[in-house]
Each structure stands twice: as structure tokens, then as C-alpha cells.
Amino acid sequence: MSYLEWGDPANANVLLCVHGLTRVGHDFDLLAQAMIDRYRVVCPDVVGRGASDWLRDPRHYHIAQYAVDMVTLIARLNVETVHWVGTSMGGLIGITVAGQPESPVSKFVINDVGPTLSAAAVQRIGEYLGKPIRFDTMDAATDYVAFVAAPFGLKTRAEWRSITETVIRRDGNGWVLHYDPRISEPFKGVTPELAAKAEAATWVLWDNIRCPTLLTRGAQSDLLSRETAMQMTQRGPKAKLAEFAGVGHAPMFMHEDQISVVRDFLLNG
After folding, report:
1. Whether the model pTM is above 0.90
2. Which element (helix H / strand E) includes 168?
3. Is the alpha carbon torsion for 250, 149, 141, 190 positive or negative?
């Protein structure tokens, strides 16, 4: 598993930032720059994405495996505790780690995800996940990312291009998405019964979390309903809630209003 590292490698204050389903550690570049005065910031590419290796057996592309990988990473960093920022999938991994007895997560920012997920949003994501797509130009790739990730709420073409360049790779005369298409196999194999069991288990983990927790949500999110978000403020760690107008799933922490909320919570909350 590859990871990016920012700041003083001797700093014992570690901020671990974990990205969403098809994204990469570079998603946190701007947040990392805003935090390196106080933290050693570590941003992994979850296995199967970006610079990390692809798994031989795609059945292991699941949250439990990713959580084990993150615990191994924390041990490699040689620290007892970390602060955690997790977007979407990275938030679910965070729930799994933070919900364990004697968890190393001492402060938790969970971004636009929760134990109960909208079935319609999951279906929307499944419609593009793992499809073999090839782009002849960088502009075409940027158009695609701006379309499928429109709810991110980015404001300029330059912002869309910056988050496109990190999730594609050169392939001959064109570009392809920089993740293993087989990450879709476990995702698409989820039945309603399995989804219900996973939801119940995730609520149990949420209820076990004891560290200070901030829940951030795009006000127009189609994945995390406001009803679920409110439940998360009343159960388990009783998270503080911050919502961002004009954003769906999920806030990207590229704009100052979003970065300042996270920084204030981690340093003062």
C-alpha cells in the first residue's frame, strides 16, 4: 500500500486521511498543506487504487481488509494514536477502526457517510464503478470526472482537472482510470440481505466509538441522508455535525470554508 506523507516525519501527531471508493490520497493535498504546521499527515492509496498494488483475489476488496491494512500502516508509522479524516469509504473504514476496543483513533472526522446508506445513491455509484473507460485526451477525462463527480461541488475547471490528473494513468496513446476495475466485484455482489446485515454491524461499531467525532455532510448529499446524520449526532460518539451548502456527495476539503471546519475541530474541538 502506497501512501503520501507531509510534514515532519518525527512528529508524533499523525493525521491519517483516507479517501473514497475510486479516489486516491492526493484528494487531501490541500488539507494536508493546511495541517502540516501541526501534524505529520499521511494519505494512503487504498489497495487497488492509485500507486498501491492490486489484490490477486478481488474478493478481498472490502472494508474489513482495508481496516486491517490501515492498522498495519499505523503500526508502521510507529505511533500510538492518530487523528483520522475519512471520506465516504474512508469514513466507513474509520468507523471499523475507531469502533474497536482500545482503538488508535483518538479524534475522528467522518465525511458524508454513515451506517445507513441511500440505496439509490449506491445504485448510482454502481452504474459507473469498474466500467472499462478510455480517454483520448485529458480534457475528455476531465469532462467524465466532472460529470460522474458533479456532486463534489467544485467551482472551476482547474479544480476538476486537478482531481482528474490524480485518478487516471497513461495507457498507450490514451488514459484510463487508475484503479482495479475488479473493486466492483464485491460491491455489485451485495444483496439486500447482506446490506442490511452490514448496516446493523456498522451501527454497532458506531455505538462503540468513544473519541471526539465530527460528521461533515454535503447539504445535498444523496448518500448520507439528514435523518441518518441526525441519528449519528445522538448515538455512539454523538458527533458534531457540519453541513456545507451547494455540495452533495462528498465535500472534497479543497475550499477554505471546509478546511477551516476540519482544522478547528481537530485542533480545538
Report:
1. yes
2. strand 168-171
3. positive
* Secondary structure class of 222 (helix, strand, coil): coil
CA dihedral 221→15→44→115, nearest 10 degrees, is -40
Contact 179, 49 (CB under 8 A): yes
What pLDDT, in 10s, does the model give residues 3-13?
999 999 999 99
Average pLDDT over residues 232-254: 97
The DSSP code for 25 is: G
Domains, the chain: 3-117+200-268 (3.40.50.1820)
Cell numbers placing 196: 442490511
Per-residue model confidence as pLDDT tens digits over 104-161: 999 999 999 999 998 888 888 877 788 889 999 999 999 999 999 999 999 999 999 9
Instruction: List strands edge to edge, sheet with 174-177.
Output: 134-135, 174-177, 168-171
- Strand-pair partners of 15: 41, 83
Q: Measure CA 198 to chain center.
A: 18
In our burial notation (b when 16+ CB lie closer than 10 A, e otherwise), range 24-40 reads bbbbbbbbbebbbeebb
Q: What are phi and psi of 213, to 5 degrees?
A: -135, 135
Q: How many CB atoms lie within 10 A of CB 156?
A: 8
For residue 137 the three cell numbers come to 485526451
CA dist list (Å): 216 to 84, 109, 124, 245: 13, 7, 21, 11
Q: What spatial distance separates the first Cα and last Cα of the chain, rounded to whole Å?
A: 31
